Predict the 3D structure of the following.
Amino acid sequence: MADRPRDLAERMARRRKLAGKPGQTVGDGYLRETFTLPRAAARERAQAFFARYPKAGYMSAVETWRELPGGDIEFTMRRLPSAD
């Protein structure tokens, strides 16, 4: 039997509740992880992320990044959960 509109609305509401939890999907379907590391370690972590989740298969990207006053880099990596 096909889903009712109410079923769809409940599923979407459950997905929105996951917002703010690391590694979980938010309304747009992407998984996000945020890191704060020294510059060299941040570069290595991003390279390892792209090696594990290639851009072509997961649409991986560095979503945001900024340099903190102490010199550390805070960045958020984004990917699709296509093979999870």
In short: The first helix runs from residue 5 to 17. The first strand starts at residue 31 and ends at 37.
